Amino acid sequence: MTDQPQPEYRIEDLAHLSGATVRTIRAYQDRGLLPRPERRGRANVYGDAHLARLRQIADLLERGYTLASIKELLEAWDAGRDLGGVLGLVAEIDGPWSDEKASRIGRADLHTAFGGVPDDAALAEAVELGVLERIPGRDDEFLVPSPQELAVAAELHSAGVPLAAIARHLREVRAEVEHIASRFLDFTTEHVFRPFLDHPPTEAEAVEAAALIRRLRPLAQQTIDAELARAMRTLATRHLRHHLVESLPPAPADRPAVTATAPSARRELLPDGERAAPTGPAADRDPVALPAATVRAVRDLVGPENTAEFIAAAAQREVQARTMDALAAPATRDGRTAAAARTKATTADLDGDHDRDGG
Length: 359
Prior knowledge:
mainly alpha; three-stranded antiparallel beta sheet; two-stranded antiparallel sheet; 13 helices; 7 strands; 7% strand; elongated; disordered C terminus
């Protein structure tokens, strides 16, 4: 049984098969990255070893190695050194940086998740942003690289946010996050990976670097999660406090507004079981006992100085809402409105209380 003849290529054939140009192949030969071809008469002949080497070089270039580093790696490989650690390091770097698994979604389910109305422009923008990826040969199905990201978009849309606004927000957030990721990589490069740089790593160094990457990979996300929670707690409280206080109705004109600078016109609002003696002209008013959790929640939201005003305004708003509901109620059988009947009953109760208090 005779050995099969090995394929032989001209430089043009080698360029076509490898994806490199003729000029690049010759440059690699000059740098010592690619073995010289065999000479057959007046022609240069290349073989499968040359093709494999060109593909190795292309792969390492895509992984971020410089030509100088690639040359040292290939020389080590040719010298018989084990590069398993290096390849493991490369695999670790190229591995997923999230535990989230990609999924698929059909066009009909996608429309249902976003209000049931097809929107080709929004769909095209989602594909452009990478939120969705088209599947070759499948017009009715899409790949979802991050199901969590798609779920957030669907939830925002169901809350009333337009799809165009969601896309703009994602672009802004992505730019900020990419900046943060770049800073984290600069930080870890300077303080963690500096010993492994500027030279091809040894087998031991590659194994150590791969282990460090596995340890550090989740730290970036954990840091961002913690800092985002802290920022949202601080900024959201301040933001909501500002808008909620501004939206409160003004105090009625027939009674003085309750303010932090007028303690004599304020009743102390205390947790359950606690009462304070009223002071000032309003001393004949009873203090109101409220659940401790309620007082703490309001205090955290609007600040201690605005707690009483907030609760009083919220109660006044509820009273006004119920009054409006009563006014809109249908008439009773005797021709009076239900609102008038309720108002009269309430007035009688108040007069009775007034008489009992000696007013």
